[in-house]
Amino acid sequence: MTTLRQFKCEDLFKFNKVNLDPLTEMYGLSFYLSYLAHWPEYFQVAESPSGQVMGYIMGKAEGHVQNEQWHGHVTCLTIDPEYRRLGLARNLMKGLEDISEDKNCFFVDLFVRVSNEVAVNMYKQLGYVIYRTVLEYYSGDPDEDAYDMRKALTRDVDNKSVIPLKHPVRPEDVD
């Protein structure tokens, strides 16, 4: 039975295998610890019965609480290739969405490589739409664009947050 639980500091020693996926963005130790300190509720792990990290999601709430830009953000979602197609990503996303609902966010957003068709299709199945394309988003690969995908939450009764932009933007234009 898989356990979904809050990420703990000691998980940093157990999640390297998950991060070996070439589509997973890797960060420095201080980055992970910063998220764990500031948004612990948004940092969740899927753990096997033997204690192996099967995948994790890392996110945050950002924007201004008082306006329509207040939202949950998925910084990273990755599943060990050995455990894919079991619904773990869907369950981790649902947890992040629920946390964002509890924080009264208007929407949840994430960035995904345009070339990662499997992930793009999964997010579409979860109700996300392509809000805009961000040109040359990935610093390690300047030819790789990203989709900014969004899903409206119940606070956005008119779904204004997911009305797609007509033109692509540059990374410096992303707020």
UniProtKB/TrEMBL annotation:
The keyword Acyltransferase applies. GO terms for molecular function: protein N-terminal-methionine acetyltransferase activity. InterPro entries: Acyl_CoA_acyltransferase, GNAT_dom, NatB_acetyltransferase_subunit. GO terms for cellular component: NatB complex; nucleus. Residues 2-154 form the N-acetyltransferase domain. Pfam families: Acetyltransf_1. Its EC number is 2.3.1.254. Keywords: Acyltransferase, Cytoplasm, Nucleus, Transferase. It is found in: Cytoplasm; Nucleus. It comes from the Eukaryota. Its main location: cytoplasm. The keyword Nucleotide-binding does not apply. Component of the N-terminal acetyltransferase B (NatB) complex which is composed of NAA20 and NAA25. Catalytic subunit of the NatB complex which catalyzes acetylation of the N-terminal methionine residues of peptides beginning with Met-Asp, Met-Glu, Met-Asn and Met-Gln. Proteins with cell cycle functions are overrepresented in the pool of NatB substrates. Required for maintaining the structure and function of actomyosin fibers and for proper cellular migration. Belongs to the acetyltransferase family. ARD1 subfamily. This is N-alpha-acetyltransferase 20.
